[in-house]
Please model this.
Amino acid sequence: MINIQNYVQAESLEEAYQLNQKRSARILGGMLWLKMANCTVGTAIDLCRLGLDTIEETDSRFSIGAMVSLRQLELHPGLNAYTNGAAAQAVQDIVGVQFRNMATVGGSVWGRFGFSDVLTFLLSADTSVELYHKGVVPLETFVSMKYDRDLLVRILINKTPGRFVYQAMRNQRTDFPVLACALSCVGGEYRAVYGARPGRAMLLRDEEGILQNGPCAESAEAFAAYAARRIPTGSNSRAGAKYRTHLVSVLTKRSLSKLGDTREERSWK
Amino acid sequence: MEIKLTLNGKTVTDRIDPDLLLIDFLRTHGCYSVKRGCETSNCGLCTVLMDEKPILSCSMLAARASGHSIRTLEGLQEEAADFVGFIADQGADQCGFCNPGFVMNTIALLREIPDPTDDQIRSYLAGNLCRCSGYDGQLRGIRSYLESRREKGGSHGK
Model:
């Protein structure tokens, strides 16, 4: 059970940052994961009064505050228009509406949880994170960084022209995914992201140029085999490594089929 | 620490421990419809509305609810009465333990999507677990309520 000795609604990012330098301090996200921890928190720092609960859209990017809920991500018309609905698809099977009204994008991204649908989806886009101390860092870099005492302020998605598909395999709706796959073609570059391997989401680029002429039945087959070779998987209570590797191949093919390519569309028929 | 919030339309001020969960605060203030179930934020039993949005009170610090409006089933009896009879008519409840959470989230559903499809109902209520039934009774009850409302030409919306 979590024990909190002091609770502070920070008045500024600087105050939150300073309070967070103590090892016993914790930044609160949606608290859904944290509340199940068995630990003592010296100061629980709440960012709820810092206006970080909105998604701002400009011509060039989306700026998602760290306290934006997964439900806001699911319902945002601009973000879903840009991502072909992938933003909503990535989160809509996470527990229930009540849970998604509380879970924050910042909490999911900062946690860099292996099971995270959110992280998997965001890696498929041209995404960066804004950290209070370190500034803007590409999400791909942030994913491999060690946990420190910095603050995640915003998630930034550049509106680089692209198309997106999100698919996940679950043993049961609302459970953690057995494997999550986000596939995109952003600025002409194919990006395949695999989450719940069960390790942290991993981005795979088409380094062999398999999809250089766009996806078709043959190239999808080849890219799926390439992904199955390159993506490490493991076993846990939900599935074995062999099954997950099989899913890497299946979800890749399905996603490429869905992503399609108008030039190649006929070859799918 | 001191918190002040609006509970079912009334202002409540209290001194609390920083780690007090909202569910415990609400039960201390007489809202016994709010129940503790899974403790893992999965069952929806403890659903309440915070600023009119459904949330899980078992996973929310009471301190974080300070300054907000909280509604429990005790404060929404009239709105719930519209449709709970239809759910009961379908025999959807057996032990009834999950019922208040289901009702709270159904209120939120009908406010947000006044005429939902079956898929929208299933999807919206996916975070409410019932270990007695197979959810079909609840679905039939809501569907039957919607049909009855349609026949009367009325609407639920608020």
